[in-house]
């Protein structure tokens, strides 16, 4: 069974005991045994392991893991140091620089954000190599929708940053008016100029979180 090692184990106990998750496990056993699948099976739940339920200050919602060699490591939009920074993350850095003056990092590892309470969650947690969205329908969406709903139920305010049509579709799950929901185009080069650039989300998130002394230092991205 899954062992996250923090509050998520209890919060998601019913989800991990469900028929849906049993089907996900069967599917993944076949996939990992037959194809190259990302991330490594031991990295699938890294975002939850690093950012505990009570510690979540912001949620950045991605679609599915990067599907190239060595990229995905269990955090939306993040890659390990030494891996070329993907185009979507380059655009995220450009927007951050425009909003805050932050220097663009020379790596794409976002663990520094995760450790400050930014849950870097993909809506599907695995993907077949070179096949984006290949695990979209295996049952992950039921689990990640449940994660979003359980976060929405929390009284302590947080920020949801929903970029692109797939992420925006999850706004219906966030019903607690205590939270701030920010939506924009996806940072992909195909859509970033249609509303991601200039969205101001990082400043807006910190203005909201600063009321409780929980602003994110977006420049705190040490190499791991």
Explain what this protein looks like in three dimensions.
The protein is of the alpha/beta class. The protein is 33% helix and 11% strand. It is globular. It has helices at residues 8-11, 13-16, 19-34, 46-50, 87-100, 111-114, 140-152, 165-168, 201-209, and strands at 37-38, 58-62, 118-122, 127-128, 159-163, 180-184.
Query: How much of the sequence is in beta strands?
Result: 5-15%
The share of residues in helices is 25-40%
Major sheet details? 4 strands, parallel
Return the structural class.
alpha/beta
- Across the major sheet, the strand order is 3-2-5-6
- N→C terminal distance: 28 Å
* Radius of gyration from CA coordinates: 17 Å
SSE pattern: HHHEHEHHEEHEHEH
Summary tags:
224 residues, single chain
Topology summary:
Blueprint: H1 8-11, H2 13-16, H3 19-34, E1 37-38, H4 46-50, E2 58-62, H5 87-100, H6 111-114, E3 118-122, E4 127-128, H7 140-152, E5 159-163, H8 165-168, E6 180-184, H9 201-209
Parallel strand pairs: 2-3, 2-5, 5-6
Antiparallel strand pairs: 1-4
Task: Give a quick precis of the structure.
It is built from 9 helices and 6 strands; from the N terminus they run H-H-H-E-H-E-H-H-E-E-H-E-H-E-H. It is α/β, with parallel strands linked by helices. The protein starts with 7 loop residues before the first helix and ends in a 15-residue tail after the last helix.
